[in-house]
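Hi Y.,

Following your request, here is the sequence exactly as I used it, all 557 residues.
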Amino acid sequence: MGPVRVAAVQFAAGLDVAGNLATCLRMADRAAAEGARLIVFPEFCNRLSWYEDRGAARRAACTLDGPFLTAIAAKAAEHRVHLKINVTLARGGRVTVAGLLYGPDGALLGRSDKLTLMGAEGDHLDPGTTAGPVIATPHGRLGLYSCMEGVTSDVPRDLAVRGAQVLLNSLNSFATDEASLHVPVRAAENRVWVVAANKVGPLLPTALLPAIAERLGVPPGLLDGAGESQIVAPDGTVVAKGPRTGEAVVVADIDPALADGKARPDGTDLFAARRPGLYAPIVRPPLPRTAAPGAGKLAVAAVRSPELVGEAARAGAELIVLPELAFGADADPAAVVETLARAVEGTSAHVVTSVRTGAAHTAYLVNADGLAGAQPQLHASARHASWATEYGEHLEIFTLEWGRLALVVGDDALYPETFRLAAIAEADVVAVPFTPREEWETALGLPERAAENRLNVIASGPDDGLILDLPADFTLWTSWDGPFEGRISHPLVTRASRPVTVAAVHPAQAVNRLVSKNTDLVGGRPAHALAALAHDAPDDEAPDDEAPADGTPAVTH
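Below is the corresponding structure, written out as tokens. Let me know if you'd prefer a different format.
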């Protein structure tokens, strides 16, 4: 295995199935002409994903031996390429959104049925029932996922934990924060390559578009595919990106083997340090949210040094977050508590930082009465390896007057599972005393944790930080106060670049997790297909799934 040229191909698809097939074949020719050996197409290549009823969806769906996919297989064989396409697929009495990988001989190498359906897709299509494959090829180990599956961390993380080096994402999205956030973060957090192909052009029938746009209060043009197909390196760097509109073949030469290195610059192996035994709640069946709404508005502060805590409290901040080890690694924990309690005396403020407690790195929650809570770090960190050898065994949630708070300590912020646990435990706000080491951690990582879990986040580091507020304008299935500008779930970002940065967050907004009709970011996670997240290691010795009777190849783990 060596470097390979890959292509993310973007184009429009309408109601004319024959025309859509012609477009697919033409764009495959273009990608092959540019030397691509691995080609990724967008989602719903066979037809728009809008149907009158389930019968219409079934009639429009492809079959594995039908003319649409037979032609795609022949095109892969013609150019001797690996080609991933996404279509609606009818088989076994179900119609799924299927990612299909064809090999250079035209054989079907693997199928991944979309596990998390978006909005109206769930009205007429069926979700997948099992985890998608990780497929060994001459171009690396490939994992397949689609659009909404990448708006949360679960499915891409599952594929990476099972050994995928290159993730192939097919999108059918009008959201501009796909390209700016949801796509590149999956590369950075998993240290893998991502090849993502999105649609352009109308995603709804042209005749219905004006009425639908008016009902949603959205300009019709903002319901077009958002394009910006891209190829992202394992450090989160976008190495190639397509335009916002118009057909494009986005190519780059990648080395899949680079995805085998999971080390942070400080030496922490981000996969070896995972704690699968702590992640069991992620793979349990989701439950409805039961927590009462938090406060409508909460003043918070990210503060650079302990001397400024009193200033933040006097400015009205109810939650103040310092960097980790703000008093130094050798500070006496009791003295830290005493100093912070004195700084907020006469106020109802709570302060968060971390201290060394014996052999553990522990976040402290302090108010005027003293220590109000503690959270040991959950994951090992090479930075603190000389003294931090004991770790917490669960994520604690603290109920305060304004809502429920989780403390994410230091390098626990690197793990999407940590924030997922906070959301499952019904936190509204997360305080993060940390020390970022790579640009993606603040540019992509923390904003995504807020977006994919509907969590307000206040993070403070020695040189910088973030305050991430959940907007009330969130899902297009509810009325908006402001205009829709293309972003669907990105939090409101305040950069904590000053010594004291005060802003507001909205704990009550964490209750609404419906990113679209029938699509709950937390309660809709496909727990039944995420078993690998709670296993100690990739299940290399597990037997392959039995091949379905329709002739689809067995899933390769």
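Confidence is low (pLDDT under 50) at residues 538-557.

Thanks again,
Q.
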